[in-house]
Amino acid sequence: MNKQIKTESIFKIDIVIENINSEELNIKERNYSYKEINEEGNITLEINYDPFGAVAEKIIRTFNEKSHLKEEVYYDEGEELAERKTYERNDDETLKFEYTHYLDGSVDTLSYKYDNEKNVVSKVLTDDEGYIESSEKFAYKNNKLIKKEIFNENEKLIEKLDYKYDEKGNILEYSNHEDDKYNNFKIVSEYDENGNRIKSLKYNSNEQLIQKSSYSFDKKNRAIKSIDEDGRGISITHLNYDKNDNTIIQEEVNANDEINSRVERQYDNDGNILESKTFIDMHGMGINQNYNLKYKYEFY
């Protein structure tokens, strides 16, 4: 039986050349992130650190007796209180209201409504005076989302998303429509007999193909290769696994077979990641990155 994680600490080790004339590497280690997890597997404390190792963001979460989120308190850099969110639920534990409490004492309320299958059919965001700030509507077919509409404070439709599925429930087509047609797009996907997505085509508002991706899988249905092509060029990603199906190498190359990025990972016997080594080559378009992440755990 796998041990249950109580705390997770991640440390980032940056590996840099001291200056352009130096051949020596400067290794700097700092706090990267920290999490506390309760016995139900919920993250109760989350801290992210800035490049200097100081707290950049802290989130404290509390949960009800049924392990559903009850409150989130956000702190920004310097651990100053930023905002607080509280959650009110229906008898069946679905969300009824989500309240955002601001420092000036004002409160925004996000209200949820559901159909008989407990699918969300509407969300309405109001301020503390009851004025609508935005709203969303959702439509379903066979319990699958087929349409999402987003409205502004004047109840004007500003964005619509449509979904089409095959007989197995895979998304065949996903399209986005906005007032600004420049942002409109459509994504068409194909799947193999195992339900793995093997091709994705993205079109702009003029039905011009702007991005193409293909995916390959092994006999265990593990993704082993992807090819992405857009106006910037082609990138090819290879994935390798250990005997426990953990991803141990993830490497991306360009059309000239030059490495764009490479990530190597190590795991313990329970599949918890222990270390990752990352290298990113900007090919002269920016500063290369070379860093390690080390993970330390406490267990129940």
Could you characterize the architecture of this molecule?
The protein is mainly beta and 300 residues long. The chain has a domain of 62 residues. It contains no helices and 22 strands. It has a 22-stranded antiparallel beta barrel. The radius of gyration is 23 Å and the shape is globular.
Topology pattern, helix = H, strand = E: EEEEEEEEEEEEEEEEEEEEEE
Radius of gyration, Cα only, in angstroms?
Answer: 23 Å
Overall residue-averaged pLDDT value: 94
Major sheet, described briefly?
Answer: 22 strands, antiparallel, barrel
Report low-confidence residues grouped into runs of 5 or more: none
Structural shape: globular
Task: Please bin the fraction of helical residues.
Answer: under 10%
The rounded distance between the terminal residues' Cα atoms is 12 Å
Q: What's the count of strands? A: 22
Amount of beta strand:
over 45%
Give me the secondary-structure category.
mainly beta
User: How many helical stretches?
Assistant: 0
Question: What are the key terms here?
Answer:
22-stranded antiparallel β-barrel; 300 residues; 0% helix
Ordered list of secondary-structure elements with their pairings:
Blueprint: E1 5-17, E2 25-37, E3 43-49, E4 55-63, E5 69-75, E6 81-89, E7 95-102, E8 107-114, E9 120-126, E10 132-141, E11 144-151, E12 157-165, E13 171-178, E14 185-191, E15 197-204, E16 209-217, E17 223-230, E18 233-241, E19 247-254, E20 259-267, E21 273-280, E22 289-299
Antiparallel strand pairs: 1-2, 1-22, 2-3, 3-4, 4-5, 5-6, 6-7, 7-8, 8-9, 9-10, 10-11, 11-12, 12-13, 13-14, 14-15, 15-16, 16-17, 17-18, 18-19, 19-20, 20-21, 21-22
